[in-house]
Structure formats: structure tokens, C-alpha cells
Amino acid sequence: MRAFWAQVSEALSSGTAPQTPPPVDQGVPLPAAQLRTLLADTPRKLTADRVLA
User: Fold this and answer.
1) 23-49 burial by CB neighbour count: b if 16+ within 10 A, else e?
2) CB of 26 closer than 8 Å to CB of 16
């Protein structure tokens, strides 16, 4: 990733467009059980309870 940004910086400094697309990070799959655990631990606030300033 750092090499890509170095190429972009060099290309912009020289006045040309970068030719290399950024690398794509696909991430890793999240097991459904772990997702449920993360969502269960997330604090919730009802829309009706929100105060708009």
C-alpha cells in the first residue's frame, strides 16, 4: 500500500496521472455468531428518544 502512495506522490509531483490502481483489501469473512455477539454488545438508542439540536 505504501508503494502505491509513493507512486501516486511521484506521479503528481511530475504532473502525470498515476497508472497503478490501489490494492483492494477484501477483508476476511465474519462468522455469523461473532456478528451476533458484536451487535448484541452495541448500545442502541431508539429514534424517538433522540434529541435533535
Assistant:
1) eeeeeeeeeeeeeeeeeeeeeeeeeee
2) no
> Is residue 8 a contact partner of residue 24, using CB atoms and an 8 Å limit?
no
Neighbours of 15 (CB within 10 A): 6
The per-residue pLDDT string of the chain (53 residues; one tens digit each, 9 = 90 and over) reads 788 788 888 888 888 877 767 667 778 889 999 999 999 988 887 888 777 76
CB distance 4 to 23 below 8 Å = yes
